[in-house]
Amino acid sequence: MTHIPPPGHDAVTAGPAPGAAEQRRGRKRKPGRDPRPEREREQAQEQGEAPGQDQGQGRARPAAGRRLVLGWAALGAVCLALQAYVLVRWAADGGYRLVDLPGEGGAERGHRRVLDIVFPALSAAGAVWLALWLYRRCRAERRVSFDALLFAGVLFAGWLSPLMNWFHPVLVSNTHVWGAVGSWGPYMPGWQGSAPGMEAELPLVTFSVCSTALVGVLACCHVLSRVRDRWPGIRPWPLVGVAVATAVALDLSEPAISLIGLSVWSKALPEVSLWSGAWYQFPLYQLLTAALASGLLSALRFFRDERGETLVERGAWRLPGRARLWARFLAVVGGVHVVMGGYTALHVLLSLVGGQPPDELPGFFRPPAVY
Predict the structure, then answer these.
(1) Which of 34, 35, 153, 198 has CB 3.0 to 4.6 Å from 336, enough for a Cys bridge?
(2) For residues 111 and 361, is the Cβ–Cβ distance under 8 A?
(3) Which candidate, 226, 66, 248, 86, places its Cα nearest to that of 159?
(4) Which of helix, strand or coil describes residue 199?
(5) What gap in Å lies between CA 224 and CA 221, rounded to an integer?
(6) Residue 200, strand partner residues
(7) Closest CA to 261 of 285, 281, 284, 276
């Protein structure tokens, strides 16, 4: 028999069916979904809160998020302070003057070539052109790009080059090259190498190393983009391997560059060197160490978070405008110093294994007094 509700009773308002309240109470919210309105969520993210946090929980987040970039920035500041300390001591002591020892590689030996002047001039001009190109890009984008910061970081890390000769002369420069000065390595705390003025450095030639390093990083990142487009699910470490392999391929011309005669490898392991004993001998492990450094810098540029920040810049968006720029700059300087310092340390360790200098030097090569 059909039940008919009494008059005045609305069937719609009769109440939920048995068990409906329990179903509503048991309904779970979707994980990761923030129940606040969209505008409130955006404001919370700007203030540094994570999705789903209330304001009390989010107050500690900005400080925690800034720690990574501030840590790298502190390292970069220490590296720049140490660099300034060494260079000031070097300049004040007159360490830029080369010592001549007549009859032992002094002024009587060798003759200057046109290439000894042209190459450092082209090196400096190339670095200036690259700096202007990056400046125009930054102006067009109305922001300081990571590439500009990376170029500055590599330039500032160029002061590490003489530290390769920490215990023994590993790479000896031709003092006939325009701009050759005495090494600032002896003014580094803990230095175990030669006395001031006995080794030479080529600062203008170092500019070409910095420029080619940035160009190589850009090329490696282009290859990584193509690889990730082809295999979207590829993991980061295989991509780092691709970057190192690409850097090795790009650096295959370096043995031929040794024939220019701007410097010679005076501590090359003969078992793993091309043309061992000749003045243009080339250690093959230089290909691997240089490619490892270039691959790591490429990975640093390539891998970014959802805000476009690299590993060393992570959390910089939480800082105010001018402080953010300085933090990014110092953080990139710190990251580059870690990579280039590791490259230098590898060559220092390999120099302890052994190695031999060339049997003789060409007539155009004027070695420093330490040779």
Answers:
(1) 153
(2) no
(3) 86
(4) coil
(5) 5
(6) 182
(7) 281
Look at the block and give the residue holding tokens 């031929």.
Answer: 256
DSSP 162: G
| Amino acid sitting at position 287 | L
Higher pLDDT, 254 or 105: 254
> Is the Cβ–Cβ distance between 172 and 263 less than 8 Å?
yes
> Which segments of 183-309 are extended strands (E)?
200-201, 263-265, 273-274, 282-283
pLDDT tens per residue across span 122-163: 999 999 999 999 999 999 999 999 999 999 999 999 999 999
Rg (CA), the chain: 30
Maximal C-alpha separation, the chain: 126
Q: Which residue type occupies 229?
A: D
- Total-model pTM: 0.81
Specify the residue for token string 């409130």. 40
55 contacts 44 by C-beta, under 8 angstroms: yes
Q: Hey, CA dihedral for 101, 201, 179, 257, is it positive or negative?
A: positive
Token pair 């590599």: residue: 154
In 190-272, the DSSP E strands lie at 200-201, 263-265
Q: Which amino acid is at 368?
A: P
Token pair of 236 as six digits: 């980061």
- Kind and range of the H or E element at 321? helix 321-353
Q: Quote the strand ranges of 209-341, DSSP E.
A: 263-265, 273-274, 282-283
Mean pLDDT of the chain: 85
Q: CA 310 to CA 322: how far, in whole Å?
A: 18
- In whole angstroms, give the CA distance from residue 150 to residue 77: 15
Q: Do residues 167 and 348 touch, judged by C-beta distance below 8 A?
A: yes
Non-local (6+) Cβ contacts of 339 within 8 A are 293, 296, 297, 300
Q: In whole angstroms, how far apart are CA 137 and each of 34, 189, 280?
A: 39, 39, 39
Q: Quick check: helix, strand or coil at residue 113? A: coil
